[in-house]
Design a protein that fits this description.
Number of strands: 31
Largest sheet: 29 strands, antiparallel
Radius of gyration: 31 Å
Helix content: under 10%
Number of helices: 3
Distance between the termini: 29 Å
Shape: globular
Length: 669
């Protein structure tokens, strides 16, 4: 049925395009008795603009059955075959139509592709404006490899997703472009599908089927006010959130322990079911202003306050031979768990920035940012365990509190030393504190407090030694006193340098180098992180009747992460080392072939590649070729070929390769 509908759509679009072409190109037949008047009417018809303008790309794709692992292909590429509406971009401006003055309709990848988009804009000048967007993402992730050193099946994936993510965003404005513009907006995000996740039992984990249902609705409305030198936006809205998850299995599973026993007994699960639900709602208020009270000063500020509430629910039913670590080495054949909770989380954030220009060559900027959250939660867990000879029941209450704040203040100055040279220097101070429940290993204090404090020096330079060369360099140097996370920024150095050089009017070169070196020398952490990349880009875009153009880029990047940690099961010091060195490049060359009239073929060849070495070496190649043939001024034929290939020396089972061909017509309305 889907293919049949696409065939009808293709036929209808072709008919519309050919009809529009005939109307635009056809000339009215002149009457002998009114030659002069008909000549004027004919010129008016020929030069009149069509109310519909745009581009429609319709075609079909063929995909050769991938050689290798099909699940990896779907996780990375996931393109299918069949008839496709690959691109739609229409601008409609009817004459004398009262409902709207203009409509923009744009969409891409309809007909079965994993990512579809649709956008519509309606406008009646000085009356209203409507902006609506829709996107659908078929998210699939089923990579075979799974990093779990405790699992006996090291190649078994215990996390998988096959879901549909849909997003809708609509906004309606009244009197756009006037002093006061009220607006209403509605956003809906949903995710539904299935997958695999683990049912975690004490001393074992069991991968089970998973049903996912997630959604959030956001309503907001406000007014935008324009007073010339200042702008003000006041907005109020609410959210409604729900998250449902069902995990189930009726098969006998031994879990990650496999044949391993616990004090002589084998652990297994014969029936496992979980039902998880989350409901939430909240209100929020936002105020934003921008002002330019004088020519030498700019002001900006934003304040957001939200107070959401969530109520979770959880039910679990397990059967088999299971162990309860809380009760020691108690083995039970059936267990029930029920949990209900409540949480509130007021959240306040604000930003204020200012730029003053006391001199034509001096600019001073200051920015203050703060973010504060507080979460109060409570829950009650009821557990019942059944053994062949007895039963055990218990209730556990949880009362938790989390407070966190993060504040940042930045001051910097910019001086135009010369019309070709600008220097920048500044200072950033970050601080904050957090209070949270103590960890499992903390048997002294029920709560722990940590602090954040960081001093950062800023510097930069922008230079134009001559008209064709521009150099930008920025640097940050940090002395981190305290940090929230073991892998957070502590003592780091960051630099970014960019060079743009216009060799000729048609040939441009762009180079970027970025380096981040972060260290945390605290005992028990000893964290070292280094990430750097160097990119080069060349563009040859000649004007006029040149036969070819080239776009090429290359990136050399590397990441190294080294940190100490405790083994979860034995609590012994261990080292985590990750290294990745990558080469990434792409090349596209457009060749304008010889032709006559409107028939001027165009050939595009090139592709991209990624090669990595280190902890997980891999190689990925994607060459491509595209041929475009104008049949008439309104109809173009195109054909495209792509090849996908992935190989990983350590995980040979994850490799795949396939060919893909897509062909169709482009209609220029």
């Amino acid at each position: 049925m889907k293919r049949e509908r696409m065939r009808w759509l293709l036929a209808a679009l072709l008919a519309v395009s050919l009809n529009a072409q005939e109307v635009t190109e056809a000339k009215p037949e002149a009457k002998p008795e009114a030659a002069a008047e008909s000549a004027e009417e004919e010129a008016a018809v020929v030069t009149a603009d069509s109310p519909v303008r745009g581009v429609i790309d319709v075609g079909a794709r063929w995909v050769k059955e991938p050689l290798g692992d099909f699940q990896t292909y779907r996780s990375i590429v996931n393109l299918g075959q069949g008839i496709r509406l690959s691109n739609l971009d229409l601008n409609i401006e009817p004459t004398g139509f009262k409902l709207f003055d203009s409509m923009r309709l744009a969409g891409s990848n309809w007909g079965g592709d994993p990512y579809n988009t649709l956008r519509m804009n309606l406008e009646k000048r000085n009356i209203y404006r409507f902006d609506g967007t829709y996107s659908n993402i078929a998210y699939f992730n089923y990579l075979p490899s799974f990093a779990n050193t405790q699992a006996t099946g090291a190649f078994f994936n215990q996390r998988a997703y096959d879901t549909q993510i849909r997003n809708i965003d609509n906004e309606f404005q009244l009197f756009p472009g006037t002093r006061f513009t009220p607006y209403l907006a509605y956003t809906r995000n949903t995710d539904f599908g299935n997958g695999i996740t683990t049912l975690v039992a004490d001393r074992n984990e069991y991968p089970l089927r998973n049903l996912i249902r997630w959604g959030q609705d956001t309503y907001r409305g406000g007014i935008r006010a324009d007073f010339g030198r200042s702008h003000l936006t006041v907005e109020h809205g609410g959210t409604s959130f729900r998250d449902d998850q069902q995990v189930f299995s009726t098969e006998r599973l031994t879990g990650n322990r496999g044949a391993a026993t616990l004090v002589g007994q084998s652990l297994f699960l014969t029936d496992g079911r979980q039902a998880y639900s989350m409901r939430g709602d909240g209100r929020f208020t936002k105020v934003l202003f921008v002002a330019n009270p004088y020519d030498w000063v700019d002001l900006y500020g934003q304040v957001l306050y939200a107070n959401p509430r969530t109520t979770p629910g959880f039910f679990q039913n397990t059967m088999g031979n299971l162990n309860d670590a809380t009760s020691g080495l108690l083995f039970f054949s059936r267990g029930f768990d029920t949990l209900f909770g409540d949480a509130r989380r007021p959240h306040t954030s604000g930003t204020f920035s200012m730029e003053i220009r006391p001199h034509s060559r001096i600019r001073i900027r200051e920015m203050y940012e703060t973010d504060r959250i507080k979460t109060d939660s409570s829950a009650m867990l009821s557990t019942t365990l059944l053994t062949p000879t007895s039963s055990l029941g218990r209730q556990t209450g949880f009362i938790d509190r989390l407070e966190a704040s993060h504040t940042r203040q930045t001051v910097e100055g910019l001086v135009d030393v010369h019309r070709r040279l600008t220097l920048r220097a500044g200072y950033r101070y970050e601080w904050g504190d957090s209070v949270f429940r103590g960890g499992v290993l903390n048997q002294i204090n029920p709560q722990e407090r940590i602090n954040l404090e960081r001093h950062v020096g800023l510097a930069g330079i922008q230079a134009r030694p001559w008209d064709r060369l521009t150099i930008n360099v920025g640097a940050e140097v940090s002395n981190g006193v305290r940090t929230y996370y073991r892998t957070g920024l502590q003592d780091y150095h960051k630099i970014r340098a960019q060079v743009r050089y216009r060799l000729t009017d048609n040939l441009n070169f762009n180079g970027v180098h970025v380096r981040l070196d972060n260290q945390n020398p605290a005992p028990g952490v000893d964290y070292k992180f280094l990430a750097q990349s160097t990119s080069m880009n060349v563009q040859w875009l000649p004007r006029g009747g040149s036969r070819f153009s080239i776009l090429a880029d290359y990136t050399r990047s590397s990441i190294r992460s080294d940190i100490d940690y405790l083994e979860p099961h034995i609590l012994q010091p261990a080292r985590s080392l990750y290294v990745d060195n990558a080469h990434t490049g792409s090349l596209l060359a457009d060749l304008n072939l010889r032709g006559s009239g409107v028939v001027r073929p165009k050939l595009t060849v090139g592709g991209s590649f990624v090669r990595t070495a280190g902890s997980r070496p891999s190689s990925y190649y994607q060459p491509t070729g595209r041929f475009l043939l104008p049949v008439t001024e309104k109809v173009h034929f195109y054909s495209e070929w792509k090849w996908f290939g992935l190989a990983q020396p350590f995980y040979l089972f994850e490799g795949f390769r396939t060919h893909m061909i897509q062909t169709g017509f482009r209609f220029n309305l």
